[in-house]
Each structure stands twice: as C-alpha cells, then as structure tokens.
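Here comes an entry:

___
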Amino acid sequence: MNNLFNIYDRALNGPKVDEKEFDMKMIFQKSKELAKKYEIQYNPDDVVPQDKDMARRTFDAGVELLSNVGVYSRDTQIIIEFSKDEIKDALNNIKDFIFMGENSDTVMCKARLLSDKRKPCIIGGPNGAPISENNYISILNSYAKESIDGLHTGSLVSIFGRNIRARTPSEFLACQYEVIWAREAIRRAGKPGLSITGIMSGVSSEAQNSGDFDGGLRCCDKHLISFLNELKVDWEVFNKIAHNHNIGNIIDANQGGPIIGGYAGGPESSAVVAVAAMIQLHLIA
C-alpha cells in the first residue's frame, strides 16, 4: 500500500501538462524518435519476429520512453514520473509465479520464456464477449468442463431484462451476478475451486469492486484492472488497485495495447509504447 500512496502523491504533485500535449508532443513524437534511435523495423512478411536482438532494443526503447514521458494522470493532468533505476528495480523484483484457484483446483501459473517447452497456463472463457443472461451459466459451464486452468468471464448484456447503465444499480447487480453465475457454472462442472478471471460487466471501480463478497470473487481469483491508452491512468484505476491490494486479491493488471495509427504512430513506435505500457503495470499495480 505504501507504493500506491507514493504513486498517488506523484499524481497530485508532479509536472502539469495538457493532455493533448502529452498525446502529440510526448507520446507520438518521442516514441517515433526512439524507434528510429534503436533501429526498430517492421517487416510485414514477418508478423511475429524471432529477432532477439531487436526484442532487446525494443525493450530498452520502452524503458527509455517510460522514464522520459512518465504516466499521465487524466484527473489531475499531472505526469507521474519514474526514473530508469526505479523501473529496473521494479522489474527485477517481479514475482514470476502465482497460485490461482483453491483446494483441488489450485494451479500454479508461472512465467514462460522464449521457446519454453512447459505447458502454458490456459485461461478459457468468453474473455469479455457479450452474453445474454439466459445463456450465461450454460456458456461458462461449457468452458469450465474443458481442460482449463482458470475461467474468464464474459460481459452480461442485460440484468433481469434491463439494459446495463454505468454507475447505476443495474451495473452493480450485473457485476455481482456475473460472478454468482460464474461460480454456479464451475460448481456444475465439478470444479468449485477453479480460478475465475473478471469482472467484465461494469466500467466503474465501485461496480467492479462490488464483485468481492461471500459467494462472489475470492482472493484466489484474478481481479482485472485495465489501464488506459496510451500510458494513462485515472482515479478509477487507482480505486481498483487500492481495493484489491487492501483485500489481498490477485491483481491481473492489463493493457489493451496501443492502437497502430493512433497517438502511438506506426508499428515500430507502437511496439515501443506497448513495452512501456506493460512496464507501467508493474510500477503502479
């Protein structure tokens, strides 16, 4: 929690910058410069390159981008700054495994390296895809019956026949019943301890956090916290981090990835921004 308050203080007291300037002059311009500096090149005929040297250069460019531009706090219009040493210390102290699920359904999810021959940890499920409430349990149950290590929930499109609206009781109930029905799905599959990854049916931190209750998400489940593009956070993100840290939940911090052709520019500079975005998750969450 000390780290969270440290970051929180920086979001209140750092250098103030207009969001448009951060997008255009800092993200767009700097990422292009770094892609050129580190000779990062995109080959459309080699979509998943195996060039380890270029991977290292892309990583170094991402570290440099993050240490130069920081992370933008949208609510305060302040840049949260990180030094290179701070970034490297955080990366050196990353835990490379977690235990998910409980009782006989507990699994260890361990980081895998390039060309690693170990079986990956498989999280199966709709992964946020919209699902009707009438079919929700049966669809998740069909996934849970497969040989998976965890179940990823989908998004409810309605709750008790009503459209879901952000920051209303419908959003709170959708988030809660998403987990209640997911728990029922794994129970019917004979895997009551299977880890669940969610929540997908709400956008507000209050609604997503409301999924933690007796019969809802457990500490052994993966709690999703999605950061904003590109290299941005807001109080909603901070609220979810604070809630999950305080309870001791497993945090699944994630980043949708930069949009090629947007503020991150083309494929080369987008790769640099993507690396920086992944690193920020470990610094903040």
User: Anything to note?
Assistant: The first strand starts at residue 71 and ends at 73. Residues 169-188 form the longest helix (20 residues). The two ends are 10 Å apart (CA to CA). The mean pLDDT is 94.
